[in-house]
Write a structure and sequence with these properties.
Length: 461
């Protein structure tokens, strides 16, 4: 079966009072569309989200994934399983959150608040692992690096902080985890977007930040977190979103004026075919002009996303439209009009195996266990007493045992036919084969019982 790439999108209801036709608005929801055809695949109702407030947990190891979305203006997060379009669970949060993120490994969830507070939860247990004041103004976004080792927070106070997740989980030093691992602090106005490269990890990589001061900055994520380059947009442009390709060859910056700017990260060298990286001279150096508007839409740009193959650019707008453009020509291919409010989330993903109406598996995937998120940080003793759910699926093992149990019976049926024609030699050989299969079955049954008892003992311990 061919791999299907989907578009995951969500919107806000803040400016979606009427539809384009003048009628009533559609129910706000999280939508999935086919990237190749723009056809509608699934809708998760009902959800209205602010910017940077939606995250997903991928399906893996036979356990279904889920969509998490903080509801706009409420201290509530909704959880939807891929298997059904209705809300699976409603979680009550410590306060109203302005941003929300889940680590790529699916272990941690982070949320930021208008007061500058940041929360970090363990998803499996719902335990609040850390809570600290990271900024003195609203937290605008929280971003994990691809290896889930670093957490990057941005704020309206014009600062960007980098935290080590392992330090945040260290209960032995509760007073030190609030200190950032590094600070990216050369912007003068509120941060509007943060993007990290695919190679970013605990050992380094690159990060891009955009702010209302009209600049996009490129940083090193290795201490001392040097500023590598500053790109300045035209004077009237304010970057509202960023998208970086996986090879880190270029950056797209969407603006509140409806323009999308292409920022190349490599430039031609003197020799034919030669290229070199675009870099500035650090702090205080003049900015590199990035005034190449590769495309323009009729409404302010709120979100950008690239397809997995970097062959298409997705542009989300304040009017609720999603424009799909071909790369590198930037020619518009299609427009999706499923939302009536501003687009607040836009990303691409490979179709989950457990998505509703999916025919990729014959056996259903269980829905991942979701627990209520703690609203206060637990003590060390309470934390040690918390339990984590384990999904036990004996059907896979039993199906293999059933095949072994049927094997001796099938061998007996086969042995009756050659016995009549080939005499006692064939009968003796088949009898020996039956004994060997029965011995193998006994060993498999004992091994399965031993493993099952071990799992049960571990669970009850």
């Amino acid at each position: 079966m061919a791999t299907q790439e989907l578009i995951l999108s969500a919107s806000s209801a803040a400016e979606g009072s009427t539809s384009r036709s003048g009628g009533s608005t559609s129910t706000p929801a999280i939508h999935l569309h086919d990237l190749a055809t723009s056809s509608h695949v699934q809708a998760f109702k009902t959800s209205s989200n602010g910017p940077n407030s939606l995250a997903t947990v991928r399906s893996h190891d036979g356990v279904g994934g889920s969509v998490w979305a903080v509801q706009e203006g409420k201290a509530i997060a909704g959880v939807w399983a891929w298997q059904k379009d209705q809300q699976h669970m409603k979680l009550h949060l410590p306060e109203r959150l302005t941003c929300f993120s889940i680590s790529p490994n699916g272990l941690w969830a982070a949320g930021g608040s208008p007061s500058g507070q940041v929360y970090l939860w363990e998803i499996a247990s719902g335990a609040l692992q850390a809570s600290w004041t990271a900024h003195y103004r609203t937290v605008n976004s929280l971003t994990f690096t691809p290896d889930s080792a670093l957490l990057i927070s941005s704020s309206s106070d014009a600062s960007v902080h980098v935290f080590v997740v392992a330090h945040l989980l260290d209960s032995d030093t509760p007073g030190t985890y609030s200190q950032p691992y590094g600070t990216l602090g050369d912007h003068t106005l509120a941060i509007t977007a943060v993007a990290v490269g695919k190679t970013a990890n605990a050992n380094g990589g690159r990060c891009w930040t955009a702010a209302e001061d009209g600049t996009v900055k490129m940083w090193s994520l290795a201490p001392p977190f040097d500023l590598l380059a500053t790109f300045s947009l035209p004077s009237a442009a304010k970057a509202s979103s960023l998208a970086v390709d996986s090879a880190e060859r270029f950056v797209y910056a969407g603006s509140s004026e409806g323009n999308v700017y292409l920022i190349p990260l490599f430039k031609r060298k003197g020799a034919v075919g030669g290229v070199e990286a675009v870099e500035g001279d650090g702090l205080g150096a003049p900015a590199i002009k990035a005034d190449l508007a590769c495309l323009t839409v009729e409404s302010p740009v709120t979100c950008l996303a690239l397809s997995h193959g970097e062959s298409q650019l997705l542009v989300g707008t304040r009017s609720g439209d999603i424009h799909i453009h071909s790369l590198p020509s930037h020619q518009q291919l299609r427009t999706i009009t499923a939302h009536s409010g501003p687009i607040t989330h836009l990303s691409t993903m490979i179709r989950p195996a457990d998505l509703s109406n999916s025919a990729t598996r014959s056996d259903p995937w269980p829905i991942m266990e979701v627990r209520n998120l703690d609203r206060a940080r637990a003590s060390t003793s309470t934390k040690h007493a918390q339990t984590v759910g384990v999904s036990l699926r004996p059907t896979v093992g039993s199906s293999r045992l059933d095949k072994l149990r049927r094997a001796p019976q099938q061998s007996q049926l086969v042995s009756r036919q050659p016995a009549a024609s080939n005499g006692e030699d064939n009968s003796a050989a088949l009898s020996q084969e039956v004994r060997e299969l029965r011995a193998a079955l006994d060993r498999a049954v004992k091994l399965n019982e031993k493993m099952w008892n071990g799992v049960v003992d571990l669970k009850l311990a």
